C-alpha cells in the first residue's frame, strides 16, 4: 500500500544515511523481525550487509531451508550460514533440566555467532570496516526497555586469534517505530515469502525446549515430523490466523502401550498445545474443531512410527506457560 511503501522509502533513506560507506552485520533467527530488518537494510546498502544464520539443529522442518534458499532468493542478501548442530547436540547431551537447556543453547549461540561475526569483521577491507549491527527491535520492545538507542559492546573472548578484544557496533534498528502487523506489511512490500512474513512465534531455543527429557538427534527428528503434520493440518483448515501458536511437545521420557495392526507398541506421546493470545503474557487454550484434532492425531500416529499417542493440553496461561519448558 501507499503508506507501507513510504515507510520502506523513509527507512531505506535513514539506513543509508546512518551506515554511509561502512558495513553491517545482521543475525537471522528465522523469525519475522530479523528477516524484515535484514531485507530493509539490504535494500538500503546491498552488499555492505552480511547476514549470519546459526543453524543450531533445533529448527522445525523446512525452516533452515526457508532462510538459506527462499529468503536469499527474495532479497539477494549475502548470507553466511554456520552449521553448528553437532556442537549444540554435544553441549546438550544428557541434559534434561529446562533452565540448563536454555542456558546451554543461549551460550553456544552467542559463541558461534560471535565467531562468525569476528570472521566477517576480519575479512572486511580496511576502508570499509564493519561498524554496524542490525537488530529487529520493534516499537513495543523500545517502550519496554525505556527508549534508548545504543551500541552493542560485544566481547569476543571466544574468537579466533588476532582480532580486537572488543568490537563495538552501532545499532541499526529500522523497525523501531513499527508494530508487529506493520512489520509484516513491510515484509510483504519487500517481497518476502508468506511463510516468513506470516510466521507464528517460535522460541529461540527451538525444539530443544519442546522435548521433555534429554535432546537427541533421533528425538528431534520425531518431533520435527509430528510438528510438521500439526502445522500442515492447521494451515489446511485455515486456522493459522485464529491461533497464536501451537507447540507440539514430545514427552521423550514417557512411554505408553498401544496397538497398531496386530502388534503391541510401546511408544512416546506428544502433546498438542494450541493457544489463543494477544501478546503471549496470558493465553487461553484454543477450542480446535474435533475433526481437525482427529486428522492431526491420525496422521501423527500413522506417519511417525515411534509416536503412539496424541494428547491435548487444555490449560490456560496462567497457570501453564505456553511452552512446556
Ligand atoms: P511462555 O512459555 O513463557 O512463552 O508462555 C511465551 C511466548 O514466548 C515464546 N518463547 C520464547 N521466545 N526465546 C524466544 O524468542 C525464548 O527463549 C522463548 N521462550 C518462550 C513462546 O513461544 C511464546 O510465544
UniProtKB/TrEMBL annotation:
<comment type="pathway">
    <text>Purine metabolism; GMP biosynthesis; GMP from XMP (L-Gln route): step 1/1.</text>
</comment>
<keyword id="KW-0332">GMP biosynthesis</keyword>
<keyword id="KW-0067">ATP-binding</keyword>
<keyword id="KW-0315">Glutamine amidotransferase</keyword>
<comment type="subunit">
    <text>Homodimer.</text>
</comment>
<keyword id="KW-0436">Ligase</keyword>
<protein>
    <recommendedName>
        <fullName>GMP synthase [glutamine-hydrolyzing]</fullName>
        <ecNumber>6.3.5.2</ecNumber>
    </recommendedName>
</protein>
<feature type="binding site">
    <location>
        <begin position="29"/>
        <end position="35"/>
    </location>
    <ligand>
        <name>ATP</name>
    </ligand>
</feature>
<keyword id="KW-0658">Purine biosynthesis</keyword>
<comment type="function">
    <text>Catalyzes the synthesis of GMP from XMP.</text>
</comment>
<feature type="domain" description="GMPS ATP-PPase">
    <location>
        <begin position="2"/>
        <end position="199"/>
    </location>
</feature>
<keyword id="KW-0547">Nucleotide-binding</keyword>
<dbReference type="GO" id="GO:0003922">
    <property type="term" value="F:GMP synthase (glutamine-hydrolyzing) activity"/>
</dbReference>
Amino acid at each position: 500500500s501507499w503508506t507501507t511503501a513510504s515507510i520502506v522509502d523513509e527507512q531505506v533513506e535513514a539506513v543509508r544515511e546512518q551506515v554511509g560507506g561502512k558495513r553491517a552485520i545482521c543475525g537471522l533467527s528465522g523469525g519475522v523481525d530479523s528477516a524484515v530488518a535484514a531485507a530493509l537494510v539490504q535494500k538500503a546498502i546491498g552488499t555492505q550487509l552480511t547476514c549470519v544464520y546459526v543453524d543450531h539443529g533445533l529448527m522445525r522442518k523446512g525452516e533452515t531451508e526457508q532462510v538459506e534458499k527462499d529468503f536469499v532468493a527474495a532479497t539477494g542478501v549475502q548470507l553466511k550460514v554456520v552449521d553448528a548442530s553437532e556442537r549444540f547436540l554435544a553441549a546438550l547431551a544428557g541434559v534434561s533440566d529446562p533452565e540448563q537447556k536454555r542456558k546451554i543453547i543461549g551460550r553456544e549461540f552467542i559463541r558461534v555467532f560471535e565467531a562468525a561475526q569476528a570472521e566477517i569483521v576480519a575479512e572486511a577491507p580496511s576502508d570499509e570496516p564493519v561498524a554496524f549491527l542490525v537488530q529487529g527491535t520493534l516499537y513495543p520492545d523500545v517502550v519496554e526497555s525505556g527508549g534508548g538507542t545504543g551500541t552493542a559492546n560485544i566481547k569476543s573472548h571466544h574468537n579466533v586469534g588476532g582480532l580486537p578484544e572488543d568490537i563495538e557496533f552501532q545499532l541499526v534498528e529500522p523497525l523501531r517505530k513499527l508494530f508487529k502487523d506493520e512489520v509484516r506489511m513491510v515484509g510483504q512490500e519487500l517481497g518476502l515469502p508468506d511463510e516468513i512474513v506470516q510466521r507464528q512465534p517460535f522460541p529461540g531455543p527451538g525444539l530443544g525446549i519442546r522435548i521433555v527429557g534429554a535432546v537427541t538427534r533421533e528425538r528431534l527428528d520425531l518431533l520435527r515430523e509430528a510438528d510438521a503434520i500439526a502445522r500442515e493440518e492447521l494451515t489446511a483448515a485455515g486456522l493459522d490466523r485464529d491461533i497464536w501458536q501451537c507447540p507440539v511437545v514430545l514427552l521423550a521420557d514417557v512411554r505408553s502401550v498401544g496397538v497398531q495392526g496386530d502388534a503391541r507398541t510401546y511408544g512416546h506421546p506428544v502433546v498438542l498445545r494450541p493457544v489463543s493470545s494477544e501478546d503471549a503474557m496470558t493465553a487461553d487454550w484454543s477450542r480446535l474443531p474435533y475433526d481437525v484434532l482427529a486428522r492431526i492425531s491420525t496422521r501423527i500416529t500413522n506417519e511417525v512410527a515411534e509416536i503412539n499417542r496424541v494428547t491435548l493440553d487444555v490449560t490456560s496461561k496462567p497457570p501453564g506457560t505456553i511452552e512446556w519448558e
